[in-house]
Design goal:
The protein is mostly helical and about 375 residues long. The chain is built from 15 helices and four strands. The longest helix is centred in the first third of the chain and has 26 residues. The C terminus is likely disordered.
Amino acid sequence: MSLTDSQTTSYAPLLRLADGLAAEAEQLGRRGRSDTGLVVARRALALCPQSAAAHFAAGVCSASGGQPVDAAGFFRHVIHLEPAHAEAMAGLATLLVGPLDSPFDHPAESLESTAQEGSSENPPLTAASNEFATATTLPPMPLRSARRHRPFGGRPEDLAEARSLCERALAIDPECADAHAAAGHLAFREGRMDDACRSYGRALVLRPDDYNIAVNCALAHHRENRLAQAIAGYDQAIAISPVLPDAYWNRALALLAAGDFARGWVEHEWRWHRPDAQAMRRRYTQPGWDGGRRARVATASGAGRCRCGSTPRAGAGCRSNAGDPASAAASTALRSLSAALQSVLRIQAYRQACLLITVSTLR
């Protein structure tokens, strides 16, 4: 409950100290240092449990650290303490929308589009386009149960509440960066990418040093294949926080899609800095591929396997050994695409599961 006037007077010194710590914790959370920020936020809460700023900072850090349930609880408590707290409404709305799809969450469709762009001038690309189209119609193999955890938010009732919270937050404070970012998040989830870019852009004007907003704005451009804008957005995010891997990884994908392979493959290694990639990483004794004609290609992740042997042209010896029709279609697509491109070093061929290719030279 809210503090009375007499309680506010007696709590004032602790409240000022707690709010100061909360401001520090919030900045740490927004810059990706969620663990440290959450420690500072809990110190603030220990000093003054009725500090709305401390609860809000704890929510920001929890959300940044991948703890949406805890973050939602903190934001709801802020709204209980201060019913007109627009930033808490926006934070809760963002969580209710749920995680955004990356541009490569539907990889077969992405590669089908890429192949179609040059198919009129290149018959092998036509064959690749047809095979990727086949892959998109085939059901993927079931994912392991460990990957089936339902993310927080995203249900129709969650989206309805998120929309209401965004409207209330913007009515209370039209200059609230978090509210504009939450509106962008909702528009992204609903497929309204132009609206998402406008909302994220407005949020960045209001808060130009927010890493997450910069990444999400770039993702919206990336999803629409506006690669120049996406790369510029990832550049902005990296300038804000040069040590976080997601912007580098997404920029690598955009550079590869734009044909800048020299930069794209170097930054592609940032994928191993992402926490969710460590469990999938394989250690090879061979050195990395040096651009020569002989290469060994092995899957880094995915429900199926697609392997290339020692061949002058990567992909010529591609085969499927997963016993899955989508994997077989992907294998055929890889052979067709490699005939046009000489070597295919990264293939994604599932609707729900990415098939990443790691390349190393043969000794």
